[in-house]
Structure prediction request, 699 residues.
Amino acid sequence: MFKKEGINSDYKCWLKYYEIEDEYLGRYKKWLENIIVPKNKGGTDSAEEEIVKSIIAELKTGFYKLIGEKVVPHSGDPACSGFILADILDSRDLIREGLTVQEREEINRDGFLIKHYDSGPKEGLVITAKTYRGLLYGVFHFFRLLQEKRELRKLNLLENPDNKLRIINHWDNLDGSIERGYAGKSIFYENNELKENEDRWHDYARLLGSVGINGIVINNVNVSRAASDLLDDKLNMVEKLNTVFRKYGLKVYISINFASPCEDDEIGTADPLKESVQNWWKKKVNNIYNRIPDFGGFLVKADSEGRPGPFTYDRSHAEGANMLARILKSHGGVLIWRCFVYDCQQDWRDYSTDRARAAYDNFMPLDGEFEDNVLLQIKNGPMDFQVREPVSPLLGAMKQTNQLLELQITQEYTGQQIHVCYLVPQWKEILEFDTRARGETSRVKRVVDGSVHDFSLSGMVGVGNVGSDMNWTGHTLAQANLFGFARLAWDPDLSAEKITRRWCRYTLGEDREVNAKTAQILLKSWETYEKYTAPLGVGWMVNPGHHYGPNVDGYEYSRWGTYHRADIHGIGVDRTVKTGTGFTEQYFAAKKELYEDPETCPDELLLFFHHLPYIYKLDSGKTIIQHIYDTHFEGVEQVKEFIDIWSQLSDELEPAIFKNVQKRLKQQLESAREWRDVINTYFYRKTGFPDEKHRKIYK
Prediction:
């Protein structure tokens, strides 16, 4: 039976800290009476001092929630046996004595070590790190260990993040709207001003810091005119948000409009090679760092979907990016440049133009030309966050340019947080994809952590999914996507199953049946969503603009380059070298050969790479047309199963959580039925092929 937490208990997400019974805590009771924290550093303005305050606050909060008692941390040395000590390396003799030289060297900048200390007269637990941010991560992880009832004696646990940068991109506009937001309005902005919402910013910073996120972009990549003022007139808004997020180790970044200097009557151009433009940006950047010394840098979307960029002045992306990067470099800032650049004025009648080729064609020739504080932000696929598409060939191909992998946590094309669609299994497939950039062990996860090509900067970025809804993500189960992204950004080797079990435990409590059934829904949901939407990697088939619900030809004759090419004879886009757009040639040889031949191309991507007749047989033995019919019927049945599974938990879950998910599952079922009937009817009418199983298809 659930423990009553209040109607908005899902607001706390994975930081609920369900109370632990005395049997487990009794082993460590003496330790819990002696909590030691860093000594006062002096001063109150440094980011480090703010993080120390957060560490102390988290120790107080965590212990109070877990054991029901208040603890009083102190900064002295342990005088007797029984303690929990959280402090950085070299700060205390006890830490120096308790760690080996190798252990000290193995901790990286954001990493931490949690180790049982036993010298005879003194015994306890040491949480230590090289930085206060790493120490904060260690404290949060310590509380996860307590919730899992891990044995603390003999513990020796080193945790280092694989990725240097672990960033959430917000597509929030200053008017309060969120582009591709499905959980209410912005938690930051309203009517082009900051909301009076500091408590919520603090809670959000705490959520992100608890799972190792170390950066946040606070405004939309499609920069509005009002957001351009964040550079100067509204810089106080950036300052205020920074004072909150720095407490939990997050650097703040802003999206900028590359053409902002054009709005200055004295400049009138954004040509990156013009001295006047460079001086304009220097003035803005100097002012930002004078007021926000720990500012992260800029994110830029340029020459894309109508956004201005260096192409306007016959300059390359490298020339545009490097101008900004050199200015930021003197302050320790970075420049993140999105690779989402393609011709968005395509003619559907032109079969030679292929949007999938665009990122590689635009950026591969520039490899090695970018400054070392530039990161190219590359979407996971060559199109646009579809439920199924191949991994972008640009990942791994560029050997001399820092890269960030961009994933979409917000569910633009995957049910918009009405449908449950847990994306961790999808992301795991992407991260495990072997690019063959350096033989057979060049997986995407090793490309983006920098190890394949020895990048100085690299990491992962997720387009955020939170809004002003009281549970943050609209659909309570969508919280698992935010948690899962952060855990994979920290450790891409984690399995989807392990991440899921942990999210369930931290969010829903320790009831095994609740967690097992919730995990069952989550882990099957991506496959289910794919079944009743667009088949075999062909993508899209959504209503234009808002992208929710089925519309098979919605984008088929549009300017966006998002076609399925279905006719009476077959379906799919020919992207082969032999007869198509040649997209397959962008992959390394082994992958090119795999995708080039429909006999070896994985079924789930078959129609992305090939135009084939409806009677073509898949590996399953089914024809394409029968696969379409079967999967769309199966997808609806699986949503019904989700509803049945969830209904069994009504007495075990907090009412707010149960009702939230139950309502959305019912909406999902209605939408899945619509998808099934629209897609199946479309292809029946197109082909005339009947369903072999004689199920209801509307004629």
